[in-house]
Design a protein that fits this description.
This protein is α+β, with helices and mostly antiparallel strands. The chain has three helices and four strands. The protein has a four-stranded antiparallel β-sheet, with helices on one face. Helix 1 packs across helix 3. It is elongated, with a radius of gyration of 15 Å. It starts with a strand and ends in a 10-residue tail after the last strand.
Length: about 130
């Protein structure tokens, strides 16, 4: 299987309701966003996906959350790394469109050792059900 990916860092804020401080209070994380597109076969240009397109889609999505509260953006009361990964997958799937046989994997790292992720095919109409 071939793969192409990119990553960047973004600072954003969230609250985990019902937890003691610091998690239960508004606080920031310097998230690392890793995204990888995988396919069994390359396209007619010899690519999994255009890396410039993937990188630009990631930068546009990251700009939506940079230095902002995640709850209103991700549409959840509590934004975990898993919820943020699913939201990011949806943003990238919409930007990339359907890629036959391709899967997009997203990992959101909240520190150097801990991440959450979401993986699903890149199908027509954006994000798919979980895989």
């Amino acid at each position: 299987m071939y793969e192409t990916g990119t990553a960047l860092a973004v600072r954003a804020f969230h609250v985990m309701p019902g937890l003691p401080p610091p998690e239960g209070e508004r606080h920031s994380h310097d998230y690392r966003l890793d995204v990888v597109v995988r396919r069994d076969d390359l396209d007619e240009r010899g690519m999994v996906v255009d890396l410039d397109l993937l990188d630009e889609a990631l930068r546009r999505a990251a700009a939506q959350v940079e230095d902002k509260d995640l709850e209103p953006i991700a549409g959840a009361e509590a934004v975990t790394v898993e919820v943020l990964a699913r939201w990011l997958h949806e943003q990238l799937a919409d930007a990339l469109g359907a890629l036959p046989g391709a899967t997009l994997a997203v990992r959101v790292w909240e520190d150097p050792d801990a991440f959450g992720g979401y993986t699903a095919p890149l199908v027509a109409g954006g994000a798919s059900s979980s895989s």
